[in-house]
Amino acid sequence: MTALGRLAGLVLAVGVLSTPAAAQVADLRSTTQFRVCADPANAPMSSRDGSGFENKLAEFFGQQLGLPVTYFWFPSGMGFVQRTLREGNCDVVIGYAQGDELVQNTNHYYTSVYGIVTRRDGPLAKVDRLSDPALKEVGIGVVAGTPPATHLARAGLAPNMRGADLFVDRRVEDPMGDLLEDVRSGATGAAVLWGPLAGPRVKDDPDLQFTPLLHEEASPRLFFRITMGVRPEEQEWKRELNSLIRRNQDGINQILHDAGVPLVDDYGKEVLP
C-alpha cells in the first residue's frame, strides 16, 4: 500500500527490527486517541491536508471507536515502520499489504488490483489485458519492480517500458503524476499502475481512464489484500480492529468506491458500487 508506495515499498521499509526498544512496545497503544502512522505526501492515499482516502478511513475508524484521530507523519520507505510503530509514535498504519512480516496484519479490509491507464478517446481505450497486440506499438509507463513489469516483459514488451522509481520522497517528487501526464500528453500510450494510486487520480479526469486488469492468469497475481498494520505484540488491538472491520465493511467499501479505488473480491473479480 497504504500504494504503489506501500504495497512494495513497506516490504523493505525497516532496517532494524530486533532491538531492545522494539521489544518493549507491547503496551504503547493510546486509549485516548486513534494514533495513525502516515506519509504526509502519499496522495491520493494519505496527505497532511486530510484529503486522502486513508485519511477519510482513519476518521471513519476513529468515529466508530469514539476516539479523536491524530497523526505521526513520516515518509514511506526505509525506516518507516521503525520510526512510527516500533518507536511507539503511533499505533496503526491504515493501508498495509497482507503478508508483510514487518508488522502484524489485521484482517484485510479491501482487495484491489493493478490496471491500465489510457486516454478515454484513444486507440487503446478498450485494452483490458497486457497481451493485447495494440500495446506492442506504444510506450508503456510502469513503476520499476512492481508485478506488472513481469507480465509486460513476458509479453515481449520490455523494450516499450518506461520505468519510474518506487523509492522517492513524494514531498518533492511525483512519479505517479509524471506517468499519468505522459499518457495525457501522448508521450506514452498507457501506464500500468496500482489501482488505489491511479484510480482516484483519474476518477473524474476528462482525458484519462483506469481499466482494472482482471484477466491476467499467469503469476505474479495483480490483485492484493490490504490490511491495517499494528505492532506484533498487540494481539488485543488487532482483534479490536478486526471486529471494527467486520462490523463496518459496507461503510469502508463506500469510502473506497467514492474515492475511485477499484475493488475486487478475494478471487480477483470486480466488486461494483
UniProtKB/TrEMBL annotation:
Native species: Paracoccus haeundaensis
Keywords: Signal
Classification via InterPro entries: Quinoprotein_dehydrogenase, Solute-binding_3/MltF_N
Coiled-coil regions, chain positions: none
Ranges for domain Solute-binding protein family 3/N-terminal: 33-258
Gene3D superfamilies the UniProt entry points to: Periplasmic binding protein-like II
Name recorded for this polypeptide: Quinoprotein dehydrogenase-associated putative ABC transporter substrate-binding protein
Signal peptide range: 1-23
Keyword Signal applies: yes
